[in-house]
Fold this protein.
Amino acid sequence: MFSLFLKLTIVSILSLSSNLAAADEIGRIKKELFSLLERIEALEAENKQLRAVTDGYASSKKITVTGDLRYRYEDIKTQGKPDRERSRVRARISGVAKATKDIELGIGLASGGSDPLSTNQTLGSGGSSKGVVLDLAYFSWELGNGFSVLGGKFKNVFYRPEKNTMMWDFDYNPEGLAVIYYKAPIFINTGFNWLESDSKVDDPIAMLGLQIGYAAEIQSSALTIGAGFYDFPVKGREVFRGDNDDFFGNSFLCTDTEALLGCTYNHDYEEIEVFAHLRTSLANQPTTFYADYVHNRGANDQNKGLEVGLIFGKASEPASWQIGYSYRDLEADAVFGAVSDSDVGGGGTDVKGHVLKGQFAINKTWKLVLTYFDNKKEMSGKNQNYDRFQIDTELKF
């Protein structure tokens, strides 16, 4: 725009110069003005190139930082044990960088310790410092045509209806490789997740998983259905973390029952999953129904699990709310307990019962959440009552 204005100015000056007496003076003025114009045009072209390089660099190196903080009070009543009250915090922060147009890098830190199913830290011990761990460390490579590859420690790629935790705890971030495909309405998720990769510790072993789903809009509703298969070849293996008898509800045998020595899994976990998830509207409120069923082919009995749920309303905008209900019946060897939910029934399998949850959005980044668990821990027919009440205040950025 500036160069066009300058050209018009030069033309005007040249037309006026015809009235000048000295022809050599006119030539000199012409030469200087055209030289000045050439320099300005060169500078404009150079600036344009610099802007393009800067914009490209900024977009390719864009970093997004997110995080959240949760303060929790909970009261736990387990039949046959003293009542328990405690306050806990959870803090997480992660950054995602676009290394190139098709490669993404993610790193996340969280409160907690070595437990892969919890990033909570219990307050107390005289105000002692709390632990921080590496929660995420992964790359994501977009191959094109709907395919992506992930490697490292990443968010669970397997779809969970309404993010239910019957098969996978919410905090569980698997380690290994994953390949995902999404081209509406079809999605396919695959995982090669290490349970142990160091041969110095034990023979390397990994979970292999495949999930196929269909997600479609039906008028004003959204329906997702699908199925999956997950293979945990753990029969005859000892626990991967914790004490010798930490099988999280799964059945096991020990060579020395009293001393709890030589304890190993009784079964492999060859889990077949079928799920459905429907988002619709009732009474002018967002409403969700879901069901998730699993059957372990690796065990002959105590090998089935079912969760169904309903959510009414949606706590997203300021002063909005939602309430939810779910029922779970998870037999002892239905799923691999070491990666299953850590809250219902105190965690793991061999549990059934109800969960009621209410949420209120104070604003877009702050929620108040109340959750009540009315469960029974089966424990070979003992039906131990388990009640748990949580009050959470959650903030995110």
Q: What stands out?
A: The longest helix spans residues 23-60. The chain is about 15% helix and 50% strand.
